[in-house]
Amino acid sequence: MDFAAAKGGTVRGPPELPLDAMKPNVRLLVPALLASYLSCAAARATAIEWAGPAGGLWNVASNWSPPQVPGTGDSASIPAGHSSVSIDTNVSLSGLSVGGGATLEISAGGLLTLAGDTQLYGSLTNRGTVSWQDGDIYVFNEPTLGWSGQLNNAAGALFDIACDRTLANNQGSPQFHNAGTLRKSAGTDGTDLNVFLDSTGTVEVQNGPLNLNAGGNLGGTFQAAAGAALYLVSGAFNMLDTPFFQGPGAVGSHGNVVLTGALGGVFGTYGGSLDPGSLLTVAAGATLNVANAITLYGSLTNAGNLNITSDMYLYGPLTNSGTLTWQSGELHVSENPEYDWAGEVTNQANGTFDVRCDQAMTNDAGAPRFHNAGLLRKTLGTGSTEIQLGFDNTGTLQAQAGTVQCSGEVAQHSGTTLSGGTWALTNGAIVDFTLGDTISVNQAYVTLDGAACGFDKLTAGLADNRGSLTLSLSLIHI
Questions:
Q1: Which of 99, 109, 201, 353 minimizes the number of CB atoms within 10 Å of its CB?
Q2: Last residue of a domain, which of 214, 246, 267?
Q3: Cβ-based neighbour number of residue 457 at 10 Å
């Protein structure tokens, strides 16, 4: 096409040079281009395929095609079959593929550095050290297709994550079996483990978050350094033999997960939910911190220490046989069999339920109840803590500060009779029953110790005391 004519104008290019004038440039340009080509060719990664026998050593050139040992910048491939390849030296690769049925093993003392994408249709077993520097790891496990991808980190081995990349589940149900140390040592944006983690060893995060996104069997130890985080984000996690969780960084759930079994150490909730099927126990001596709002659809039992500093939405039962400290946030409880909502709160006979806030335990749906067979006490807060649930006190309600307001039905208050339970008021605290008549018959254990204590339904009209009524000071008004 005549572009000048088409545009109605004139197109001017560079002035033509005589051929002789161009020759010196040509003579200079050709060697430069050739040198650049050779340099690029030398830097280009070489794809090298395993051709040796089962049980062969990596560091033998004749085991490879072409016959050279894969090293830095190379991409190595072990074809499908039952080949077993062993690394007993230091190897660095820009790419790796292990075929279905094949096995790559890093011996004790060996080091495999992964600096590019890795595809595992077969298994990678580490008895030495794996350093994951870059690239994603894709794992394929589908027996019907001959894919057997998985990772095994043996006892005494180190699998070190020094990048913010993804361990991806590309097919089937691959697993990462960790009996050694799984460590995230570098990277601030986060590493995603999208395969099932079966860990009986140590998982430690030194930098950035490590996200467990596909559930797991969790045993051994889990730790995050200051400023780092280890999050259980999605999937079902089964606690094996009371795994030990510890900071000082954030360690806990951060998504919609199913948690079963007993946890040890210090664990936190950082938002999300404990989904249906969750049967979580906080072991004696362990601590669960509700640091961000959490929704409970399963059940939660505390035999250790449960610290609540944010809202909890209870569609399943919360049971305490240890020490529960309610510092802030509201407890929203819902009960409706039609939707499988079974929210309730139970403080067992050996449990201490310590209220340190002026918040509410709300009835959001149905007729949920608060069963207190242990010690329920309010120790802080000058305002009111409201219990909107039906309240059953066969243990002790101890009001040491502010007001405890029972705005739902109280099982021990029927008509004009207080039929049971222990009710102890000190330091000017108040217990207020919103519903029901004035109490004229006492069959419970009541102590009013201190000026200005008030039991609003218990007045001077008390005519029949068949229980215990102790008044420690004449300034108390009843």
A1: 109
A2: 214
A3: 20
